Input
Amino acid sequence: MLKESILTLIESSEHSYAQKLRGLAQLAESLLTDQLSLKEKAKEAMQEGIFDDLGEGVAPYRPRYILPRYDRLLKKGCNFLFLPPAETLEEAIHNLLIFYQSVPSISSYPVYIGELDTLLEPYLVEDDRENLKSLKLFLRHIDRTLPSGFTHANLSPFGGRCAKLILEAMCELKQTVPNLTLKYDPEITPDSFAQFSIKTGLTVSAPSFANHQQYLKEWGEEYGLASCYNALPVGGGSYTLLRLNLSRLAQKSSHLDDFLYEQLPQMAHIMMEVMDERVRFLVERSHFFHNNFLVQEGFIDPSRFISMFGVVGMAEAVQHFTKKAYGYSQEGQKLAITILDIIQKEVANYKAPYGRYLLHAQSGISADRNFSAGCRIPPGSEPSLLDHLLFTAPLHSYFPTGVSDIFCFDQTAINHPDAILDIVKGALQKGIRFFAFYSKESDLVRITGFLVKKSDIERRKKDGMAHHDTTSIGEESLINQNLTNRVIQKIT
Amino acid sequence: MKKNDHVHISQIIPFSFVDGPGNRFALFLQGCLMDCPYCHNPETKSRKINAKGSKWMGLDELLSKIEHSRPFIRGVTVSGGEPLLQKSFLKKLLPELKKLNLTAFLNTNAYLISPKEDSTWFSDWDGVMVDIKSAIPSEHQKLTGLPLEPILQNIAWLIKIDRLFEIRTVIIPDLINNEETVKRVAQFLIEQKAEQIPYRLLPYRPEGVLSPYKEQLRVPNQDQLDDLKKIFTLEIQK
Output
């Protein structure tokens, strides 16, 4: 069967050379099914889809997410890549572009490319026309050579000159890569810049707004938003991410108490034991942390790695027991909180072999059907914006490694960035960690956390192939998760 | 139902982007003095106690609904209908909004303002938005059933107490002399030394308008709106 899969991939007319190469690597890895020591209960649970490893591979040889210290690259250079410290904007940009090629991840492209305005502001020249030109070339290079919607850049909360130029460049380029998040702090970020970010967001579906104050408390200054919306330490990352499917576990349970007090704690433990195996393999057998230059030269520090305990299908699990639409009842919200309290307790009390395990609201994958991402309200059945935010905000507090809600606005919202900013401020105050949004009319659609162009999907249908890895999975998600029916927030 | 300490409401919109600055809780009160044919919410006109679709609400209940929206809104806008038909309730509402740290805006036709009686509380509004339906007295009377002059005097008073936030006019090519209205509003603002007050031209829209007007009146096109803006700008710069 493996041989057939390999041949199918090689003969595919829908995959580019680079996509075939990565696919073949994954298939090779999938041969090693006996390297992790898994208990029978774990194997059964994975076969039933109670939890899964999101295609991370059976013999992990690199951390799932890596967030290097790019500032170190620009200040000190890199011996392995023969790069001196950067002294000009051109050198800074080229050093970063070269370095990015050596930052692995689950997608094989870097999932975090730095807090770009902080990195590049010191190198800006006087003429902003020149700066804009350089930044556009930089961002275009990223889009064409790291063609994955999970490649994620950040902006600091300060809204300075470089940040404004980056947003201007993003508006002109209209690319799905890089994914972009503003670390928003209403006490630091000028309202004018925040409103400009909102207008940019309604034009090109980025940036999203992250709750900087909340993440600062948990991670300190050195944190970054990577991949979809994952909050992780800079100079570190995540070893692995497994996700527990609450919907399937609920269906397997005989009644609510069985689910809450037997199945949940038991399955959480079994899943964490599998995580232990994966982390041990990565650290002790793959030697990534022994011989990779990222570690040797101090771009990452093993002590800054954690692992992510993901959850999906909360909506369906809650609906299974309450028989009420998720997102509309206090009973449903209370049950979701109870479920998260139980899981959090298990995870907090667990001793991981390396690092620690922290909760994550997993955004789903394209193949998911019949259960929703993380704790999200199923697309197409969302209540009013006000009630949506009030329902999900308390759930966000459980996820220090990331959670998000996505809102689709009518295009006329672009005329009211002040009003949207009021909503964002209120949302963050209520505990929303990540506010992502886009306009229905935009060519760029926010999928589960990454962006895809509608026009790229059409082009792929015609040409059979797409440059960006995330185009095909974006198209699949739009269908499988009903994303085209997200409720549109109309302007009144 | 206790009418004395209750307010007669047509509609509540917890999140409104178009009723003043920022995101606002928009409260549309029931009952109006005017009878404009192009009104896009004619259901608010009736002053009957049991007007269709309306309800009466106590202050506590209203405040609890406002509190529900509170972290996400900059303030509350009271509109209608004509909200100043229920002044006694509004006088109780405003201090409560201040306690909640919310701005209070009023959308009114300004006819019912009485500078003598209202001077004690009108400064509690953070901003007043006034609709001038037509700046030609005879046209105004015919369109709304009310004279224009008292409205202009009241707007002048709002300027004096620094509470006028903006003036608006709905542009309807077939019904009012838009060009003349726009010029006269500019002249009025110059006379009042209030050229900085924003003047918004809102295109007529047929949604909600009653027949036969809905079928008869045309929506102005962008060129018409742009021309009127140019006329206003030229006039205000004189």
User: Anything to note?
Assistant: The interface with chain B takes residues 384-386, 389-390, 413, 415-416, 418-423, 425-427, 429-430, 491-492 of chain A (CB under 8 Å). The longest strand of chain A covers residues 236-245. Chain A is about 45% helix and 15% strand.
